[in-house]
């Protein structure tokens, strides 16, 4: 195995701004969950379902941007900088059109879809109330992900931290003002949480536009104008990202299926699941940051002709991800009540959430290594293979959830063992492909 010249500190130098970005972005979810946990169990549970429903739709845009990021990373590694701008501007044009279609779909069809899936009328109404405002954010989020693809793909990730911090502070401020109706603002409850998220995404777009136009060498990267109609560029991005779009949609769709299944167990199990999911996502942030780093490092390495370094690089990133997540995992094991109390002040809800927390924590090392390897598959440019691996794993994952929730009716905490099933299988499939697959000569 060839030894890569990239050190742990070098990996973390790229991953750290992504980590801060994801941390701040997750603080938005933490803030929503924490504030709504003080409003009521129905609002807490509904925000989980509505939030995941929105994210499932948003993942189509995110998948497109991930494909763009891989393409940008390859061009950056090749030093074909002048071709990067057309990827970004063409991607924004396409995503705004797609955002309009997703917005209209949500506005006209969500009520009919969700009314057939949810058993609680209270949860249904609160979910729709959240989505009515939240879906406006899809336009701003679509622009944001293309800016993120540019900065991650060119490894200029430091600015992401500042952007995410501004976004989080905006969200926290407007969460407080709009959920509880402070300082003359209307008391909107769950709708206020949704509107606060939209405002924070809008502020994020403004920040990216101002920074990019004032600090980036637009001529070097081939930026001509904000929107261009280059169908060839869009077709090239779609050729790479379509599989990622479907993959991300299905992956988050499986999370939505999980929460739909939990909703059938009752309103409190759904509220507990939202708390555990939020905490689980929060402590997994280093994993997601390093996985995103793997994606762009692999793409850059292949673009620079250093394919022999890729496998050892993946292992190095994986080891770092496991070491970091073990620290967060240990803290939550030692202080479970303190960790859960971030999201709710209810002693009953805190105590009821502990068994699920203890079930989910040991999966973190598995998820760490599996996410790194799976993102490496996408980083090679073989996104169709990544889609096949994801679909195969999700079939196993969803079948397992159906058995333990609907067939055996296991208690809530046992339902979280589904994460072990996903992590183990996606790692095994990704590891086998990277060891045996023909990815070294993939051209994109």
In short:
The protein has helices at 8-37, 41-78, 84-117, 121-134, 137-153, 158-180, 190-215, 231-263, 267-283, 285-303, 310-334, 336-340, 347-360, 364-379, 383-407, 412-415, 418-436. With 444 residues, it is mainly alpha-helical.
Roughly how many Å is the radius of gyration? 21 Å
**What is the percentage of strand-forming residues?**
under 5%
Residue share in helix? over 70%
Low-confidence stretches: none
**Counted beta strands:** 0
State the distance separating the first and last CA atoms. Answer: 25 Å
Number of helices: 17
Largest sheet: none
Instruction: Categorize the overall geometry.
Output: globular
Overall pLDDT: 85
- Class from helix and strand fractions: mainly alpha
Summarize the helix and strand pattern as letters: HHHHHHHHHHHHHHHHH
Give the oligomeric state of the chains in this entry, treating copies of one chain as homo and distinct chains as hetero: single chain
